[in-house]
Structures are given as structure tokens and as C-alpha cells.
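PROTOCOL LOG
Step 1. Enter all chains and additional molecules of the complex.
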Amino acid sequence: MFEEASEVFDNMFKSSFPLTFIVFIPAVLILVSPLPTEAAHEFTVYRMQQYDLQGQPYGTRNAILNTEARTVEAEVLSRRCVIMRLVDFSYERYQKALRQSAGAVVIILPKNMSTMPQDIVQQFMELEPEMLATETIVPVYFALEDDELLSIYTQTLTTSSSQGSSSAAEVLIHTATANGFQMVTSGAQSKAVSDWAITSLEGRLAGTGGEDLPTIVLVAHYDSFGVAPWLSYGADSNGSGVSMLLELARLFSRLYTYKRTHAGYNLLFFVSGGGKFNYQGTKRWLEDNLDHTDSSLLQDNVAFVLCLDTLGNGDSLHLHVSKPPKEGTTQYALLKELETVISSQYPEVKFSMVHKKINLADDTLAWEHERFGIRRLPAFTLSHLNSHREAQRSSIMDVRSVSPSSRHGVGEPPAGPYVDLRKLSRNTKLIAESLARVIYNLTEKGAPGDLQIFTEQMQVQEEQLSSMVDWLTAQPRAAQLVDKDSSVVSTLEYHLGHYLKDVRRHYVKADKRDPEFVFYDQLKQTMNAYRVKPAIFDLLLAVCIAAYLGVIYLAIQHFGVLYSVVRRITAPKTKQH
Amino acid sequence: MLFLATFFPTWEGGAGVYDFVGEFMKATVDLADLLGLHLVMSRNAGKGEYKIMVAAMGWATAELVMSRCIPLWVGARGIEFDWKYIQMSFDSNISLVHYIAMAAVVWMFTRYDLPKSFRLPVTVLLGLCVYKAFLMELFVHVFLLGSWTALLVKAVLTGSISLCSLFLFVTLVHSN
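Step 2. Run joint prediction.
Step 3. Record the structure below.
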């Protein structure tokens, strides 16, 4: 057999060269050419968080998927991509998908969150930390809804819910006409990002009147957190804190330029990164300043550290402390000034001090001031939230700001957490007044409770706050997305440089051998949805094509019959001639 | 195609209006197809039937390779399934029959012993063959046919043309 084949090849090569190409080229093409792709729909998907904190893994571990789409109503979910809409989302359904070892979960979020009813948003916010708490190998993605995605969802829904409820004939017709969808991501498997540097910024305003002046530190963390890093915009938590810090920096730098109002306190402003990951930026900053440098403002005379966290809304203010301040300290003075200012100028605000001891056995610290408390610096956190466990501190629903000039339209407030600019500017003024009273020792000097310093030229500028919050919420600020070259960091540095001196960057990189935090990549992918037919369909089609070819073959073989029929029909005519 | 691109100006009118005259002109160029078939058949020495069959099959295969191979290759191997490839395959079958009919009509047209009464039907059939594509597009545009319906209409049209030409052929061949 092989000799004959070689003979054939010899003849081919000898006789006509071009012909051989015609034989070989299709064979070569079959082997070599890659499979072209053209999807029914291509859309961006955002992956759920994946990180390790202090050795503990959180979130989803996988990024790639190449599975058929189904909705939750389908019976068989294993190795399928489960698509859910936010309106239908519930924890039981999510657990059901995970239990049946689904291939992936894609949650479709509406483009405009404000169309969602309040209870669904609340429920989702409560579920976010639960989804992250357990480590799962199923990749979970979030996609923003558009028309095509919605049509894909409805088609998949009809396919999934009709399974198992129809007769054999219906199933047969269904296989021929149904459209399945194959979801494929284009990226690679996720892996740990090495050498990620979390950036923090510091700046100072030096006091006047000698050496060894007491220092007041104002801190706010700028990163945001949510169930998906690319969707966490963090308006209230902590965009409000950062914009308030910048506004305070502006006001006090103005006060400090005039000799008459230059006070005898050093003001140190710190914008920290990695705040949502157990305050990594602050932790390393403290280590560097207290352990590794000879002289630093933090080592000497620190009056107190005030952390600003989530202050953009609400009619209450809570001062969270780990140790109630003793009488006679500057800490205590601030507490008293806050009470005075609120009771005389802002009676609608409910103020309280919340005492919570630092619990080192917990996985993560509660508030940022606890980092300072561990290093024996007097610190507290000011927030409108009562507890650090509030869901809105780490939710993707915390998206925007509402201003009284209502660019976003008058009417109902947004469903999720948001920044109310009027309340943010009220809180800023409140804190500024209290700080000024402490710095300039106004109560001792006999100033009345309703003395307002920040008025007219020194007014808190609401437009400044508004534009800051708008800029901050224009991009996601998750710690995994803001590296040292990011525009967020450089813009913050630029703004701080306007008002403060000695603006410096501070980097945190995870320790090589025992990393405190590990981030993973592949957080944003392009997913393709291909229209596919069920496997039975290919078989059916092949059978039909074989039948058709058989019929054609028979027709050609028996063409003579037709020929003779035609001949018989035409023959009498010619005989007549 | 090169001829078309060089000598026919692009249609500047609105998208909804169907350029009847332009498409008509373009279809007239298909007359060159007939010339080509005639040339092929004249070079082939043999009985009438063999000439027709060889020329038609060769022509149809060339058209298949040139116009349908690449789309099928590139498109049908993808993950997505589309009914248009099945339609394309049916279309190639139909055009095979069409070319056989066209070759037969051309052959009859050039016969010196064609009876006078046959001249008209043969010419009409020839015209139909050439402008079949144009007629098909007209139908699709005017009646807004779906793709499967258009295929059916095309099959019926080709079937009728080939039946007529078969009748004429048999009459011609067996009238002597």
C-alpha cells in the first residue's frame, strides 16, 4: 500500500507541479490555520476581589472560564456559567450555584443604580462581606447591563427554565432551534502581583514659637473597597474623609500664613493608602517614623491624632476611642470643644463618644486610630457611622455624591450610601471650628461657644469639596489599582503641595517572606459570549446532510428516467412534422 | 469585478432606494460569462452532451472555489453556528444546475442547425440565465423575502429554466 502511495506521489511531482499544490494546500491549511473568532457579544467584566491578608485568603481564586451559560432556575448548574441579575440576587441562589460547583458566576448590575429599590441595595450591601469572607475557586464576575447582555440573559432564562418540563418532540425541536451561549474570558489565570507599592502622602504646617511644639496629626485613607475592585468608588467611605482633609489643609494653611494667626502647634496631614486592608500605609509609616528615624514629629510631642473616616452624610457624629481621654490632656480638650461647638452651633447633630478597646485577636483592626493606639499615641476616629462593621464602609454601592444644587436631579435620594455635600461641608466647618478652638486655646481665653471663625473669606468652600468628591468618585480607587504612578496619587500630591510644606511620599511593599498583604491581578477582563448550538444539533445536522446527499446521488443516478420522460413528451410533436 | 469597479460609478443615492438601472447594467456584464462558456465549449472536442457537462462542471467548480470556499473556511469553522453557511451550500448546488442549463442554452444558441422556431425561446432563456441574479435581487427587494424563502424562489427559478432548456435540448437532439 505504501509503495503505491509513493508511486502516486512520484507521478504527481513529475507531471504537473501546480496540481500538487491543489492537493497539498488544503491539508496544510487545515493543520496550520488558527480558529477565527467573532463573538455574538463582547463586554467587560470585573472580577470579585482576590487578596490575601496576613496569610488568610479572601475572595475568588480563579479568573478563566470557558463554559456554557445558564440561569439559576436550570437544574444542572455544574460546570456552567450562572448568570444572575441584581434584582434576582439572593444569598441562597448564590450558595446554590457554588454548592453545585458551577463553572462561574456572572452578576449583572444595572447601569443606573438609582433605579434599584432600596431593599435590594441594602441586601446586596449586607451580602458583600459574606461573599468575600469565604475563599472560593469559582470565578465571580460583575458586568454592567446593556441591551445585548439583557437579551442574552432572557434567552438563557427561557432555555434554562424549560429544561425538564417538555415532551420528547419539543425537546427535539428545541435542540434544533435553541441558542446556547458560551462564555469565554480572554485573559490568563490570575497570579499574585509582586512588588506592589502602596503609596501614602504626608505634608506639614510648622507651628511658630520655639522648638518642641506639640503636633496634631490629621489622617484620612484614600483607597476604597467593594466586592469588585474596579467597581469600588468609595464616595462616602472614604472620599468624604479625603476631601475634608484637603479642605482643612487649605483653611489652616491660610491661617498659618499670617503671623497673627500662626499658632503654636505643628499640623501634620497624612493621606494613607491601603486603609481598607488593615491600614497598611499607616502601619508602615508609624514603623518608619518611630523605629527607623532619629527624629520625627511623631516621636516627640504628639497632642493627638484625628482620623477622618466616612463623614459625608448623616446627622450624627461619633468619636471612636480606644481609651477614654483623661482630663487635662489636649485630647480631652478636643472632645470638649466638639461638644461645645455642636451644642451651640449645630444642635441637630447628635454627638457621642464610642469607647471600644483594641482587640488584637481580631483579624483586622476596627478604625484607623487603633494603629496609632497600638504605638501609644493618643488617637481617635471621627465618623458618622456608629460601628466599624457597617456594610457601607466597604460596598460598591457607595458611588456618588448629591449636592443641593442637584445636578443629579431633585427628588429621592440614591438607594445606596452617598455623600450629601451640604452635610459634608457642615461637618468640615464643625471640625475646623473645634480644632481652631483647641489650637488657639479659645475656651480658656473666654470665647463664647457660638463664635464662628471660618466665615466670609475663611469660609468652608462647598464647591471645593464638591469638585474633590466628584474627582475622587470618577475612578475606582481600590488599593490594587492605585500604584505609585497612578494619577490619583500624583493629583493628591499636587493638591497637598499647594497648601503644605515638605510633601513626601511613603511606600509600603509587602514583606517578601511573610507578606502582610498579597494582591492578585486579572481584575478586569473582556468576556465574549458566543452563540452555540447544543451537541445533539451537530449530529442531527450531519444526518440531515447525509440524507440530502443520498437523495441527490440517487437523482443523478436516475437522471436517465427524466431524460426519457422528456423525450417521450417531445417525440410525438416531431413525428407530426 | 475589476471591470465593474473601473467603469461603473458608485451609486450615490439614498440607502433605501434600489438602484435598478445600475444593477441592470452590472448584470449585463455577466454576458461575458456566456462568452467564456462558449469559448470553453468550442475548445472541447466531443459530443454535444459531453461538452456541455464538462464546461458547466468546470465553470461551477471554479465559481465555488473562488466565491464560496473562503467564507466557508473562515466562517463555518468558528464556534458560532449560522444558518447562512447551509444556505450557501444549497446555493452552490443550485448554481451547478444553473450553469449546466446555461451551458446547454449557449451550445444550442451556437448550433447552425437550430430551427427558426427555436430561436426565440433559446434567446429568451439565455436572457433569463444572465439576468437571473438581477431578478433574484429584485424579488428579494420588492417582496422583502427572508433568506430561506429567497433560496426557495431561486431553486424554483433555476428548476424551471433548466426544465425548459432540457425540453429544448431533447427536441433539438432527437429531431434529426
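Step 4. Note key features.
The longest helix of chain A spans residues 235-257.
Chain A touches chain B at residues 29, 35-40, 182, 530-533, 537, 541, 552, 562-563, 566-567, 569-571, 573-574, 577 (CB under 8 Å).
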